[in-house]
């Protein structure tokens, strides 16, 4: 059964995180962190079935190299509490094959992040749950500054807005459901919280109850119209017999 999950967080030095170490872990690779002169080796990690850096227009081609990209981020951000990257993690429908899941993840990342000017480090994991069922999901590390052929520019504050994150959540559900329908797979996901779904269900239930009551009234209306004349006729007949 397809499930909905999309979580957004910021990777920053304030929490003791390193962009290079984070990228190495998510890509199951070995990367050299030039800032602290240390290598992060997660090459023994299993389950990573796809890994690539996707560039927007005008970004330096050298950033297709994951190690170069995140070391450049670390070098550019000088504050000790700097925000280094944004991560979006989302569950892929387990009804998809690996190839279908990778294609769907790439399409979503290209449409919502890369086309908006972010460099996206995409890694698709095809893990197994405790019961042995597939647990496919994707990790996307995103740059937080504008970019051009010369490198990084200013931070893009609009990407921090709650409305933007909510749009990503909604667009992921829409794109995933469109793809499931195209593949004739009978499964769908819903980005709304259980509370919002319950509220909508409650409104629908009240509306259905009112419609049902209206149908009952409509069905007995002809009989109600006959009650008045019939009562008058019976009253007149009674009075006539009494006289």
Structural topology:
Blueprint: E1 6-12, H1 19-27, E2 30-33, E3 38-41, E4 48-54, H2 66-76, E5 83-91, H3 98-112, E6 120-128, E7 134-142, E8 145-148, E9 151-155, H4 162-182, H5 194-242
Antiparallel strand pairs: 1-5, 2-3, 4-6, 5-7, 6-7, 8-9
Helix pairs in contact: 1-2
DSSP summary, beta strand count? 9
Q: Give the helix proportion (percent range).
A: 40-55%
- Main β sheet profile: 5 strands, antiparallel
Strand content: 15-25%
N/C terminus separation: 81 Å
What is the succession of H and E elements? Answer: EHEEEHEHEEEEHH
* Number of helical elements: 5
The order of strands across the largest sheet is 1-5-7-6-4
Secondary structural class: alpha+beta
The best one-word shape is elongated
Radius of gyration: 30 Å
Low-confidence stretches: 197-201
Question: What's the rounded overall pLDDT mean?
Answer: 88
Please, could you describe this protein's structure?
This protein is an alpha+beta fold and 243 residues long. Helices cover 43% and strands 24% of the residues. It has five helices and nine strands, in the order βαβββαβαββββαα. The protein has helices at 19-27, 66-76, 98-112, 162-182, 194-242; strands spanning 6-12, 30-33, 38-41, 48-54, 83-91, 120-128, 134-142, 145-148, 151-155. The chain has a five-stranded antiparallel sheet, with helices on both faces. A two-stranded antiparallel ribbon has the order 2-3. A hairpin with a 5-residue loop joins strand 6 (120-128) and strand 7. Helix 1 runs antiparallel to helix 2 (66-76). The radius of gyration is 30 Å and the shape is elongated. The N and C termini lie far apart (81 Å). Residues 197-201 have low confidence and may be disordered.
